[in-house]
Amino acid sequence: MPAALALAVLLSVPALAQDPYDAPAFHRSFVLETAKVLKTLKQTRAQAAFIEEKGIDLFVVSTGPVLPEFALAGYDLDRRRIFVNRVRLADSARQLEAAGLAPARIAEAAAWKWIPVVAHEIRHGMVKSRLRDKGIDFPQGTLEDEMIAFFDTVRVLQASLDGRPDLWTDDRLIAFDFDSGILLKEWRRSPSAVKELVAPRYPKAPSVLDMPRERMAALLKEGWDAYAKTLTQVDRYYAAAKTMKDPMRRQEALADPEAKATREDSVAMLGRARRSRIAIETTQGYERIRSFYRDELKRLVGKVKP
Predict the structure, then answer these.
(1) Residue 110, exposed/middle/buried by CB under 10 A (0-12, 13-18, 19+)?
(2) Between β-strands 57-61 and 73-76, what pairing exists: parallel, antiparallel or unpaired?
(3) Tell me, what's the pLDDT at 304?
């Protein structure tokens, strides 16, 4: 297995002993199979090369500071990590078992089911990397980022259906296959319909193509203020913890994993907001970002046929 896909399991609660699909052994198998599929499909070889080059790791995690509860997966730009929702992964594995797959085949089957999701997250990293290659450091997530990633989801989903049609027969469909089916149906109806599908999922994602620079600057300041406030609150928590007289309580409070993760996330988000604000300080800088996203959307859309 390539070093860039070495498994790291971050769990905020212990895995349930009675559930083999919510356990490190299954997570390791899933990551191994995911690495294989990334290299197998022509449509994901660029993603496989990217994570190998950049040293990006895949983590199976509980939801919390690093991954919102609603998310199947996520990408951390600064720490170069892809996060997969452990609860949803275990759910999909159990559904595959209920569909009649032998336990020995479930990690492989889950990797094929999840590969459009993983490819989606890797695409986020590839887009921001291409921006940096052009001398533009703009880590702010945008609606265009999600549009590009969803176009890639469709492309990889089509390849997965062609590569392993046996996993998409009616008796082997799992919960999020139906969401994928809606996405594919909407794409086949009209590529522009994907925007109509994606935008409601990300109501807070700003559009660089639609939003004036002044509004984007105000939005970034709002984000900066919110994360600065959270960081202040966490630092006050640590300051109070250090004054606790009971050494055991003090040690427990200072070692709180959620507080640590929240602080790390706040610092990272403040850094992203600062860099993004610098990137759009001038009209020329903002227009360069807009031009990049126009070209990137056009380039990727051409690779996906309705």
Answers:
(1) buried
(2) unpaired
(3) 53
